[in-house]
Protein backbone atom coordinates (compact mmCIF):
# COMPACT_ATOMS: atom_id res chain seq x y z
CA UNK A 1 0.00 0.00 0.00
CA UNK A 2 1.23 3.48 -0.79
CA UNK A 3 2.35 5.53 2.21
CA UNK A 4 -0.29 7.87 3.59
CA UNK A 5 0.32 11.55 3.10
CA UNK A 6 1.53 13.47 6.11
CA UNK A 7 2.19 16.95 7.44
CA UNK A 8 5.77 18.04 7.04
CA UNK A 9 6.08 19.66 10.44
CA UNK A 10 4.32 20.44 13.66
CA UNK A 11 3.59 23.95 12.44
CA UNK A 12 2.04 22.42 9.34
CA UNK A 13 -0.39 20.42 11.44
CA UNK A 14 -1.22 23.36 13.68
CA UNK A 15 -1.80 25.62 10.69
CA UNK A 16 -4.03 23.06 9.00
CA UNK A 17 -6.01 22.25 12.16
CA UNK A 18 -6.37 25.92 13.07
CA UNK A 19 -7.30 26.62 9.45
CA UNK A 20 -10.02 24.01 9.72
CA UNK A 21 -11.26 25.42 13.01
CA UNK A 22 -11.19 29.11 12.11
CA UNK A 23 -13.75 29.87 9.46
CA UNK A 24 -17.28 31.05 8.85
CA UNK A 25 -18.14 29.39 12.15
CA UNK A 26 -16.14 32.05 13.96
CA UNK A 27 -16.84 35.14 11.91
CA UNK A 28 -20.26 34.57 10.42
CA UNK A 29 -22.00 32.09 12.70
CA UNK A 30 -20.62 32.87 16.15
CA UNK A 31 -21.76 36.53 16.23
CA UNK A 32 -25.24 35.82 14.95
CA UNK A 33 -25.85 32.84 17.25
CA UNK A 34 -24.48 34.86 20.19
CA UNK A 35 -26.71 37.76 19.12
CA UNK A 36 -29.78 35.53 19.13
CA UNK A 37 -28.93 33.96 22.48
CA UNK A 38 -28.27 36.81 24.83
CA UNK A 39 -24.75 38.03 23.95
CA UNK A 40 -22.45 37.93 26.97
CA UNK A 41 -24.30 35.08 28.70
CA UNK A 42 -23.80 33.00 25.57
CA UNK A 43 -20.13 33.91 25.31
CA UNK A 44 -19.52 32.75 28.85
CA UNK A 45 -21.16 29.37 28.34
CA UNK A 46 -19.42 28.99 25.00
CA UNK A 47 -15.97 29.40 26.54
CA UNK A 48 -16.92 26.98 29.30
CA UNK A 49 -17.87 24.30 26.73
CA UNK A 50 -14.73 24.88 24.67
CA UNK A 51 -12.33 24.19 27.50
CA UNK A 52 -14.26 21.71 29.57
CA UNK A 53 -15.65 19.44 26.85
CA UNK A 54 -14.24 20.61 23.52
CA UNK A 55 -10.59 20.32 24.49
CA UNK A 56 -10.70 16.71 25.76
CA UNK A 57 -12.77 15.62 22.75
CA UNK A 58 -10.30 17.33 20.46
CA UNK A 59 -7.44 15.35 22.00
CA UNK A 60 -9.54 12.20 21.74
CA UNK A 61 -10.01 12.68 18.00
CA UNK A 62 -6.40 13.55 17.22
CA UNK A 63 -4.99 10.63 19.22
CA UNK A 64 -7.43 8.14 17.77
CA UNK A 65 -6.53 9.27 14.25
CA UNK A 66 -2.80 9.20 14.86
CA UNK A 67 -2.92 5.81 16.51
CA UNK A 68 -5.13 4.18 13.86
CA UNK A 69 -3.58 5.95 10.88
CA UNK A 70 -6.93 5.95 9.18
CA UNK A 71 -10.04 7.92 8.22
CA UNK A 72 -12.87 8.06 10.81
CA UNK A 73 -14.57 4.88 9.60
CA UNK A 74 -11.28 2.98 9.43
CA UNK A 75 -10.21 4.23 12.84
CA UNK A 76 -13.37 3.18 14.67
CA UNK A 77 -13.45 -0.12 12.81
CA UNK A 78 -9.83 -0.90 13.58
CA UNK A 79 -10.31 -0.79 17.35
CA UNK A 80 -14.01 -1.41 17.70
CA UNK A 81 -15.23 -3.57 14.82
CA UNK A 82 -17.77 -2.87 12.12
CA UNK A 83 -20.57 -1.60 14.33
CA UNK A 84 -18.37 1.13 15.78
CA UNK A 85 -17.29 1.80 12.22
CA UNK A 86 -20.82 3.09 11.66
CA UNK A 87 -20.07 5.92 14.10
CA UNK A 88 -17.20 6.95 11.86
CA UNK A 89 -19.47 6.78 8.82
CA UNK A 90 -22.03 8.93 10.57
CA UNK A 91 -19.29 11.52 11.17
CA UNK A 92 -18.32 11.45 7.51
CA UNK A 93 -21.96 11.96 6.56
CA UNK A 94 -22.22 14.93 8.95
CA UNK A 95 -19.15 16.43 7.29
CA UNK A 96 -20.70 16.01 3.86
CA UNK A 97 -23.93 17.70 4.94
CA UNK A 98 -22.10 20.52 6.73
CA UNK A 99 -19.98 21.19 3.68
CA UNK A 100 -23.10 21.32 1.52
CA UNK A 101 -24.43 24.44 3.26
CA UNK A 102 -21.05 25.81 4.31
CA UNK A 103 -20.13 26.04 0.66
CA UNK A 104 -23.24 28.10 -0.05
CA UNK A 105 -22.36 30.64 2.63
CA UNK A 106 -18.76 30.68 1.35
CA UNK A 107 -20.27 31.58 -2.02
CA UNK A 108 -22.04 34.56 -0.39
CA UNK A 109 -18.74 35.72 1.09
CA UNK A 110 -17.11 35.41 -2.30
CA UNK A 111 -19.93 37.35 -3.93
CA UNK A 112 -19.63 40.09 -1.29
CA UNK A 113 -15.93 40.31 -2.00
CA UNK A 114 -16.62 40.87 -5.69
CA UNK A 115 -19.45 43.32 -4.99
CA UNK A 116 -17.26 45.34 -2.64
CA UNK A 117 -14.14 45.33 -4.79
CA UNK A 118 -15.64 45.66 -8.26
CA UNK A 119 -19.36 46.31 -7.83
CA UNK A 120 -21.55 48.92 -6.19
CA UNK A 121 -22.19 47.36 -2.80
CA UNK A 122 -20.84 50.34 -0.90
CA UNK A 123 -23.22 52.72 -2.68
CA UNK A 124 -26.30 50.85 -1.48
CA UNK A 125 -28.76 52.49 0.89
CA UNK A 126 -30.26 49.54 2.65
CA UNK A 127 -27.90 46.65 3.31
CA UNK A 128 -30.58 44.48 4.76
CA UNK A 129 -32.65 44.61 1.56
CA UNK A 130 -29.48 44.11 -0.45
CA UNK A 131 -28.63 40.97 1.51
CA UNK A 132 -32.18 39.61 1.11
CA UNK A 133 -32.09 40.14 -2.66
CA UNK A 134 -28.59 38.85 -2.91
CA UNK A 135 -29.18 35.47 -1.29
CA UNK A 136 -32.43 35.02 -3.21
CA UNK A 137 -30.64 35.35 -6.54
CA UNK A 138 -30.22 31.78 -7.68
CA UNK A 139 -27.88 32.11 -10.63
CA UNK A 140 -25.20 34.19 -8.87
CA UNK A 141 -25.25 31.85 -5.91
CA UNK A 142 -25.04 28.81 -8.10
CA UNK A 143 -21.92 30.09 -9.84
CA UNK A 144 -20.21 31.38 -6.74
CA UNK A 145 -20.74 28.23 -4.75
CA UNK A 146 -19.71 26.13 -7.74
CA UNK A 147 -16.57 28.23 -8.02
CA UNK A 148 -15.85 27.91 -4.34
CA UNK A 149 -16.19 24.14 -4.43
CA UNK A 150 -13.96 23.99 -7.50
CA UNK A 151 -11.18 25.90 -5.71
CA UNK A 152 -11.55 23.64 -2.67
CA UNK A 153 -11.30 20.58 -4.92
CA UNK A 154 -8.18 21.85 -6.68
CA UNK A 155 -6.40 22.30 -3.35
CA UNK A 156 -7.50 18.95 -1.94
CA UNK A 157 -6.32 17.32 -5.19
CA UNK A 158 -2.79 18.42 -4.41
CA UNK A 159 -2.77 16.29 -1.27
CA UNK A 160 -1.91 16.96 2.30
CA UNK A 161 1.45 18.68 2.23
CA UNK A 162 1.35 21.10 -0.60
CA UNK A 163 -2.31 21.96 -0.73
CA UNK A 164 -3.59 21.89 2.80
CA UNK A 165 -0.59 22.99 4.79
CA UNK A 166 0.77 25.63 2.47
CA UNK A 167 -2.41 27.63 2.12
CA UNK A 168 -3.12 27.92 5.85
CA UNK A 169 0.20 29.36 6.99
CA UNK A 170 -0.02 32.85 5.52
CA UNK A 171 -3.72 33.54 5.59
CA UNK A 172 -4.43 33.11 9.28
CA UNK A 173 -2.16 35.94 10.47
CA UNK A 174 -3.53 38.31 7.82
CA UNK A 175 -7.08 37.68 8.99
CA UNK A 176 -6.07 38.47 12.52
CA UNK A 177 -4.60 41.84 11.59
CA UNK A 178 -7.66 43.00 9.70
CA UNK A 179 -10.01 41.95 12.51
CA UNK A 180 -8.06 44.01 15.01
CA UNK A 181 -8.11 46.98 12.65
CA UNK A 182 -11.90 46.91 12.25
CA UNK A 183 -12.38 46.44 16.01
CA UNK A 184 -10.40 49.57 16.80
CA UNK A 185 -12.32 51.55 14.20
CA UNK A 186 -15.66 50.24 15.47
CA UNK A 187 -14.97 50.96 19.13
CA UNK A 188 -14.54 54.64 18.34
CA UNK A 189 -18.00 54.98 16.81
CA UNK A 190 -20.82 56.65 18.74
CA UNK A 191 -23.04 54.11 20.47
CA UNK A 192 -20.38 51.40 20.24
CA UNK A 193 -20.27 50.93 24.02
CA UNK A 194 -23.82 49.60 24.05
CA UNK A 195 -22.55 46.78 21.85
CA UNK A 196 -19.60 46.14 24.13
CA UNK A 197 -21.98 45.91 27.10
CA UNK A 198 -24.27 43.52 25.28
CA UNK A 199 -21.29 41.34 24.44
CA UNK A 200 -19.34 41.48 27.68
CA UNK A 201 -21.73 42.06 30.58
CA UNK A 202 -23.70 38.85 31.09
CA UNK A 203 -27.35 39.00 31.99
CA UNK A 204 -27.84 35.63 33.64
CA UNK A 205 -31.60 35.78 33.34
CA UNK A 206 -31.12 35.21 29.61
CA UNK A 207 -29.65 31.74 30.15
CA UNK A 208 -32.03 28.93 29.30
CA UNK A 209 -31.86 25.48 27.72
CA UNK A 210 -31.50 26.99 24.24
CA UNK A 211 -28.53 29.15 25.23
CA UNK A 212 -26.81 26.11 26.66
CA UNK A 213 -27.24 23.73 23.74
CA UNK A 214 -26.69 26.41 21.10
CA UNK A 215 -23.38 27.27 22.74
CA UNK A 216 -22.42 23.59 22.82
CA UNK A 217 -23.26 23.10 19.14
CA UNK A 218 -21.38 26.26 18.31
CA UNK A 219 -18.32 25.09 20.26
CA UNK A 220 -18.22 21.76 18.41
CA UNK A 221 -18.78 23.39 15.05
CA UNK A 222 -16.15 26.00 15.62
CA UNK A 223 -13.47 23.56 16.74
CA UNK A 224 -14.38 21.21 13.83
CA UNK A 225 -15.20 18.44 16.30
CA UNK A 226 -17.57 15.53 16.30
CA UNK A 227 -17.39 14.52 12.64
CA UNK A 228 -13.94 13.00 12.39
CA UNK A 229 -12.14 15.95 10.83
CA UNK A 230 -9.46 15.79 13.47
CA UNK A 231 -9.31 11.99 13.32
CA UNK A 232 -8.40 12.49 9.68
CA UNK A 233 -5.87 15.26 10.28
CA UNK A 234 -4.48 13.33 13.26
CA UNK A 235 -3.83 10.38 10.96
CA UNK A 236 -1.36 12.56 9.02
CA UNK A 237 0.53 13.56 12.17
CA UNK A 238 3.84 12.00 13.16
CA UNK A 239 4.46 10.23 16.46
CA UNK A 240 7.09 12.77 17.42
CA UNK A 241 4.64 15.63 17.73
CA UNK A 242 3.29 17.00 20.97
CA UNK A 243 -0.47 16.62 20.63
CA UNK A 244 -1.34 18.48 23.83
CA UNK A 245 0.46 21.67 22.98
CA UNK A 246 -0.72 21.59 19.36
CA UNK A 247 -4.35 21.16 20.41
CA UNK A 248 -4.02 23.91 23.00
CA UNK A 249 -2.80 26.35 20.39
CA UNK A 250 -5.60 25.43 18.01
CA UNK A 251 -8.29 25.80 20.68
CA UNK A 252 -6.92 29.16 21.82
CA UNK A 253 -6.57 30.54 18.29
CA UNK A 254 -10.10 29.47 17.43
CA UNK A 255 -11.65 30.92 20.56
CA UNK A 256 -9.73 34.14 20.13
CA UNK A 257 -10.93 34.66 16.57
CA UNK A 258 -14.55 34.01 17.54
CA UNK A 259 -14.20 36.37 20.49
CA UNK A 260 -12.70 39.07 18.29
CA UNK A 261 -15.39 38.60 15.65
CA UNK A 262 -18.00 39.34 18.30
CA UNK A 263 -16.04 42.32 19.52
CA UNK A 264 -15.96 43.56 15.95
CA UNK A 265 -19.63 43.04 15.14
CA UNK A 266 -21.61 44.12 18.21
CA UNK A 267 -20.27 47.67 18.48
CA UNK A 268 -21.00 48.11 14.76
CA UNK A 269 -24.49 46.67 15.12
CA UNK A 270 -25.38 48.91 18.05
CA UNK A 271 -23.83 52.04 16.61
CA UNK A 272 -25.90 51.58 13.46
CA UNK A 273 -29.08 50.90 15.42
CA UNK A 274 -29.45 47.35 14.08
CA UNK A 275 -30.74 44.34 15.96
CA UNK A 276 -28.20 41.82 17.30
CA UNK A 277 -30.67 38.99 16.72
CA UNK A 278 -30.95 39.55 12.99
CA UNK A 279 -29.81 35.96 12.20
CA UNK A 280 -27.57 34.67 9.39
CA UNK A 281 -27.48 38.06 7.66
CA UNK A 282 -25.87 39.81 10.66
CA UNK A 283 -22.30 40.07 9.39
CA UNK A 284 -23.39 40.80 5.83
CA UNK A 285 -25.66 43.60 6.96
CA UNK A 286 -23.58 45.19 9.74
CA UNK A 287 -20.21 45.39 8.03
CA UNK A 288 -20.96 47.10 4.71
CA UNK A 289 -22.42 50.14 6.53
CA UNK A 290 -19.11 50.65 8.27
CA UNK A 291 -17.09 50.20 5.11
CA UNK A 292 -19.36 52.76 3.49
CA UNK A 293 -18.72 55.20 6.34
CA UNK A 294 -14.97 54.84 5.83
CA UNK A 295 -15.31 56.64 2.52
CA UNK A 296 -15.18 55.34 -1.06
CA UNK A 297 -11.51 54.42 -1.29
CA UNK A 298 -10.63 53.26 2.20
CA UNK A 299 -13.98 51.48 2.44
CA UNK A 300 -13.31 49.58 -0.76
CA UNK A 301 -9.81 48.57 0.31
CA UNK A 302 -10.70 47.48 3.84
CA UNK A 303 -14.05 46.02 2.83
CA UNK A 304 -12.76 43.91 0.01
CA UNK A 305 -9.73 42.74 2.01
CA UNK A 306 -12.07 41.70 4.79
CA UNK A 307 -14.34 39.64 2.56
CA UNK A 308 -11.39 38.15 0.73
CA UNK A 309 -9.85 36.99 4.00
CA UNK A 310 -13.22 35.66 5.08
CA UNK A 311 -13.17 33.57 1.90
CA UNK A 312 -9.71 32.28 2.75
CA UNK A 313 -10.78 31.40 6.28
CA UNK A 314 -13.75 29.56 4.82
CA UNK A 315 -11.51 27.82 2.30
CA UNK A 316 -9.21 26.24 4.89
CA UNK A 317 -12.38 24.86 6.51
CA UNK A 318 -14.01 23.59 3.30
CA UNK A 319 -10.71 21.87 2.53
CA UNK A 320 -10.82 19.98 5.81
CA UNK A 321 -14.46 19.06 5.34
CA UNK A 322 -13.85 17.67 1.87
CA UNK A 323 -10.69 15.85 2.95
CA UNK A 324 -12.63 13.71 5.44
CA UNK A 325 -14.88 12.19 2.80
CA UNK A 326 -11.98 11.91 0.36
CA UNK A 327 -9.79 10.08 2.90
CA UNK A 328 -12.59 7.57 3.40
CA UNK A 329 -12.85 6.74 -0.30
CA UNK A 330 -9.08 6.54 -0.69
CA UNK A 331 -8.52 4.31 2.36
CA UNK A 332 -11.58 2.10 2.28
CA UNK A 333 -12.67 2.00 -1.34
CA UNK A 334 -9.19 2.29 -2.82
CA UNK A 335 -10.26 5.13 -5.10
CA UNK A 336 -7.47 7.24 -6.54
CA UNK A 337 -7.37 10.68 -4.86
CA UNK A 338 -8.39 12.34 -8.08
CA UNK A 339 -11.59 10.36 -8.45
CA UNK A 340 -12.49 10.74 -4.77
CA UNK A 341 -12.06 14.51 -4.90
CA UNK A 342 -13.94 15.12 -8.12
CA UNK A 343 -16.88 12.84 -7.34
CA UNK A 344 -17.35 14.05 -3.77
CA UNK A 345 -16.89 17.74 -4.54
CA UNK A 346 -19.51 17.63 -7.27
CA UNK A 347 -21.93 15.55 -5.24
CA UNK A 348 -21.69 17.85 -2.22
CA UNK A 349 -22.16 20.89 -4.42
CA UNK A 350 -25.41 19.34 -5.69
CA UNK A 351 -26.59 18.50 -2.16
CA UNK A 352 -26.14 22.19 -1.34
CA UNK A 353 -28.59 23.40 -3.97
CA UNK A 354 -31.76 23.14 -1.84
CA UNK A 355 -29.97 25.11 0.90
CA UNK A 356 -29.12 27.76 -1.65
CA UNK A 357 -32.72 27.93 -2.87
CA UNK A 358 -34.11 28.25 0.65
CA UNK A 359 -33.23 31.92 1.08
CA UNK A 360 -36.13 33.39 -0.81
CA UNK A 361 -35.66 31.83 -4.24
CA UNK A 362 -38.12 28.98 -3.60
CA UNK A 363 -40.82 29.52 -1.02
CA UNK A 364 -41.31 25.87 -0.03
CA UNK A 365 -37.59 25.61 0.83
CA UNK A 366 -37.54 28.97 2.60
CA UNK A 367 -40.39 28.00 4.94
CA UNK A 368 -39.49 24.36 4.78
CA UNK A 369 -40.58 23.25 8.22
CA UNK A 370 -41.61 24.61 11.58
CA UNK A 371 -40.16 24.19 15.07
CA UNK A 372 -39.00 26.31 18.03
CA UNK A 373 -42.03 28.44 17.32
CA UNK A 374 -40.83 29.71 13.92
CA UNK A 375 -40.72 28.63 10.30
CA UNK A 376 -37.34 27.17 9.35
CA UNK A 377 -35.63 27.03 6.00
CA UNK A 378 -34.12 23.90 4.52
CA UNK A 379 -30.68 25.18 5.47
CA UNK A 380 -31.79 25.88 9.07
CA UNK A 381 -32.86 22.28 9.33
CA UNK A 382 -29.58 20.92 7.92
CA UNK A 383 -27.60 23.23 10.22
CA UNK A 384 -29.59 22.08 13.24
CA UNK A 385 -29.49 18.38 12.41
CA UNK A 386 -25.88 18.10 11.33
CA UNK A 387 -24.17 20.63 13.47
CA UNK A 388 -26.18 21.48 16.60
CA UNK A 389 -27.35 17.88 17.12
CA UNK A 390 -24.93 15.61 15.26
CA UNK A 391 -21.60 17.10 16.31
CA UNK A 392 -22.09 16.91 20.10
CA UNK A 393 -23.60 13.46 19.50
CA UNK A 394 -20.41 12.54 17.62
CA UNK A 395 -18.43 13.77 20.63
CA UNK A 396 -20.57 11.68 22.95
CA UNK A 397 -19.95 8.57 20.85
CA UNK A 398 -16.22 9.26 20.66
CA UNK A 399 -15.88 9.56 24.42
CA UNK A 400 -18.03 6.46 24.91
CA UNK A 401 -15.82 4.62 22.45
CA UNK A 402 -12.64 5.58 24.25
CA UNK A 403 -14.16 4.84 27.65
CA UNK A 404 -15.54 1.42 26.76
CA UNK A 405 -13.57 0.03 23.80
CA UNK A 406 -10.32 1.71 22.97
CA UNK A 407 -9.62 2.46 26.66
CA UNK A 408 -8.20 5.55 28.32
CA UNK A 409 -4.94 3.59 28.81
CA UNK A 410 -4.41 3.55 25.03
CA UNK A 411 -5.56 7.16 24.74
CA UNK A 412 -3.06 8.18 27.36
CA UNK A 413 -0.30 6.07 25.84
CA UNK A 414 -0.82 7.67 22.43
CA UNK A 415 -0.68 11.20 23.84
CA UNK A 416 2.54 10.37 25.67
CA UNK A 417 4.34 9.86 22.35
CA UNK A 418 5.73 13.31 21.74
CA UNK A 419 4.45 14.82 24.99
CA UNK A 420 7.20 14.39 27.55
CA UNK A 421 6.25 13.95 31.21
CA UNK A 422 2.62 13.32 30.32
CA UNK A 423 2.39 9.97 32.10
CA UNK A 424 1.55 10.50 35.74
CA UNK A 425 0.86 14.20 35.31
CA UNK A 426 -2.13 16.07 36.67
CA UNK A 427 -3.27 16.70 33.11
CA UNK A 428 -3.33 12.99 32.37
CA UNK A 429 -5.56 12.33 35.37
CA UNK A 430 -7.83 15.21 34.47
CA UNK A 431 -8.21 14.22 30.81
CA UNK A 432 -8.87 10.58 31.64
CA UNK A 433 -11.67 11.54 34.01
CA UNK A 434 -13.13 13.93 31.48
CA UNK A 435 -13.12 11.41 28.66
CA UNK A 436 -14.26 8.46 30.73
CA UNK A 437 -17.00 10.01 32.84
CA UNK A 438 -17.73 13.68 32.33
CA UNK A 439 -17.90 13.83 28.52
CA UNK A 440 -20.17 10.80 28.03
CA UNK A 441 -22.55 11.83 30.80
CA UNK A 442 -22.74 15.52 29.96
CA UNK A 443 -22.89 15.06 26.20
CA UNK A 444 -25.44 12.24 26.47
CA UNK A 445 -27.63 14.45 28.61
CA UNK A 446 -27.17 17.41 26.28
CA UNK A 447 -28.19 15.29 23.29
CA UNK A 448 -31.47 14.39 24.95
CA UNK A 449 -32.07 17.97 26.05
CA UNK A 450 -31.38 19.37 22.58
CA UNK A 451 -33.67 16.98 20.76
CA UNK A 452 -36.49 17.36 23.27
CA UNK A 453 -36.35 21.09 23.37
CA UNK A 454 -35.58 21.89 19.76
CA UNK A 455 -37.78 19.44 17.93
CA UNK A 456 -40.30 18.15 20.43
CA UNK A 457 -41.03 21.35 22.26
CA UNK A 458 -40.41 19.85 25.70
CA UNK A 459 -38.62 22.29 28.02
CA UNK A 460 -36.54 20.56 30.67
CA UNK A 461 -35.52 23.89 32.16
N1 LIG B 1 -14.77 24.89 12.22
C1 LIG B 1 -15.21 25.42 10.98
C2 LIG B 1 -15.61 26.87 11.20
O1 LIG B 1 -15.62 27.34 12.30
C3 LIG B 1 -16.32 24.62 10.36
C4 LIG B 1 -16.10 23.16 10.36
C5 LIG B 1 -16.95 22.31 11.05
C6 LIG B 1 -15.01 22.63 9.69
C7 LIG B 1 -16.73 20.96 11.11
C8 LIG B 1 -14.76 21.25 9.73
C9 LIG B 1 -15.62 20.44 10.44
O2 LIG B 1 -15.93 27.55 10.29
Automatic annotation (TrEMBL):
The chain crosses the membrane at residues 12-34, 40-62, 83-105, 142-160, 172-192, 212-236, 248-270, 306-329, 341-361, 381-403, 433-452. One of its GO terms (cellular component) is membrane. It is found in: Membrane. PROSITE patterns: NA_NEUROTRAN_SYMP_3. It comes from the Bacteria. It is a multi-pass membrane protein. Keywords: Membrane, Transmembrane, Transmembrane helix, Transport. This is Neurotransmitter:Na+ symporter, NSS family.
Amino acid sequence: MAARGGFSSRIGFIAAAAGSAVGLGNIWQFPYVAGQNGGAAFLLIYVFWIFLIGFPIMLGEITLGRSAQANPYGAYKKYGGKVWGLVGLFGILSGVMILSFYNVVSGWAFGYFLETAFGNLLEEENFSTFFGDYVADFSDNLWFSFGFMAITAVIVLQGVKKGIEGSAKILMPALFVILIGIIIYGLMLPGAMEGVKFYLLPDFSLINGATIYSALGQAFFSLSLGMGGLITYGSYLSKKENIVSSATLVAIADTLVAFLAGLMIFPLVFSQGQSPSEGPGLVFVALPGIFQAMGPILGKVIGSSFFLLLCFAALTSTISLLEVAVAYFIDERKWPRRKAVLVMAFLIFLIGIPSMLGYGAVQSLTSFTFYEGTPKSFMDLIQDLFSVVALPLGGFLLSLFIATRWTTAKFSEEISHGTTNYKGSFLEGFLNIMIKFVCPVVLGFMFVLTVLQKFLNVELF
